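Q: Hi! First time doing this. I have a protein sequence and I read that you can turn it into a structure. Is that right? Here it is:
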Amino acid sequence: MTALINASTSSGVVVTSDTSGSLAFQSNGTSIATISSTGLTMNSGNIVVASTAAPAFLAYVTTGTPSANTWTKVSCGTKVFDTASAYDATTNYRFQPTVAGYYQLNGSIGGNSSATRVTSAFYKNGSGYIYGSDSASTSSVGQVMISAIIYLNGSTDYVELWGILGTSQPWSQYAGTTIFSMFNGCLIRSA
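A: Yes, that's right. Below is the predicted 3D structure, encoded as structure tokens:
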């Protein structure tokens, strides 16, 4: 036998105990889940692992030409998804979630044609915070990527993707079904 916790529609919460070491959860007599020494078993229903409010986004570049060798905010103005409306794709091009925690952030930038320099950085609250590798060279380079886990306080903290191209040309842009210059992120652990 297993100890039971049943949410009955006629008797309220009914608890039946035993010494089996297992615990079953029921809804009106129907077993939903059991916890035992081997783990959690779901008999029906769903397990929600992360909050539906956990921010995640992906946006990409469709326009923009930075000046050569000048730090420029990458204006990822087209959203693929934004689960918590935390990415501003129209004005500031920044990610400002309302859930405090640690975020995995990723960026990719490059020029429409090969540049002699491509560098990326994450700016936090308006200042350079984490810099990617600088691909400055005398030969042509394509895309560079940047990836980091960054703590954001859930109220005032925000992150932007910035970059440098060695020649004045458009950022590499969306082409058909391929995304080139982009910014994405998601909550990996709450504070």
